[in-house]
Amino acid sequence: MKIQKSAEDYLESILVIQRRNGYVHAVDIANELEFSKPSVSIAMKNLRENGYIAVNENNEITLTKKGREIAETIYERHTFLTNWLKALGVDSKIAAEDACRLEHVISAESFAAIKKHVQSHIPEILEKE
Question: Which of 5, 82, 127, 129 is the most exposed, having the fewest neighbouring CB atoms within 10 Å of its CB?
Answer without folding.
Answer: 127
